[in-house]
Amino acid sequence: MMQFILSYQPIDPSKMSRLLVNSTAGALVTFEGWVRNHNEGKEVLGLEYEVYEILAQKEGEKILQEAKSKFNLLGAVACHRYGYLDIGEIAVWVGTTGVHRGSAFAGTRYIINGIKSRLPIWKKEFYFGEKPQWILCSANHGFSNSTHADREQ
Amino acid sequence: MHASATKTITIQYVAMLKEQANTSLEQIETELKTCAELYEYLQKKYGFGLPLSQIKVALNHEFCPITQVLKDQDLVIFIPPVCGG
Are A80 and B56 a contacting pair at CB < 8 A? Predict the structure, then answer.
């Protein structure tokens, strides 16, 4: 199973996990990215994600394929939301399965780092009493492998 | 320059570029040669804050180098620094 999904609707983690059910797997490692209520000292009300759908879909599938071959995964599923999200909502969900946990941990980390650094998705933050602002993740735009711990923010 | 060097290019804007240009799509006739030249032209026209060095580009829905030569009927999407997750 390999599936990359862009979703306007809220993500249901149990539905995502079920896509990966496989009796040969010994491990499932999942990651959820949540919308938090603060960023760089500002109180955040919510986020809006804009996605360049055609390219994001292709790039997302490419990231999953890379992870699957690199870490010998049995399955890989990832879902990214777009549109307006409230605090606490799941912005991104990633799950991978492997025969053992090592490959699944590595695969999930590779995918979330790839999603953050390569997918053409942009984030606008909404604040109390201030104009909304597009967030510039200027560390991005290498479009190279971004697996270093110092970039895992 | 010969008339044949004029190309029809469609530009789709995303995120902050869409807000700064105040449009999501436009078509222009141009003799500019590369994506980089086109971005610099649009940057002046709309006052885009992002420098060319932070911009990636997709031509006809495929990533390509910013120095890529434009062809007639190309669809260009300039990609500001991405920020998913």
Answer: no
What does the block give as tokens for B41?
Answer: 């032209």
- Residue B44 vs residues A39, B21, B39, B75: alpha-carbon distances, Å: 32, 11, 9, 20
The CATH number that domain B3-79 falls under is 3.10.20.30
Q: Is B14 on the interface with A (CB under 8 A)?
A: yes
B8 touches A at CB < 8 Å? no
Domain total in chain A: 1
Contact check, Cβ <8 Å, A122/B83:
yes
Return the closest-CA partner of residue A104 out of A22, A5, A39: A22
CATH number of the domain at A8, please.
3.90.1170.40
Chain A residues inside the 8 Å CB shell of B20: none
Residue A18 domain-assigned (yes or no): yes
Q: Which residues 22-81 on chain B approach chain A with CB closer than 8 angstroms?
A: 54, 56, 58, 61-63, 77, 79-81
Q: pTM, whole model, 2 decimals?
A: 0.91
- Quick: pLDDT tens for A59-102: 999 999 999 999 999 999 999 999 999 999 999 999 999 999 99
Query: Does A132 reside within a domain?
Result: yes
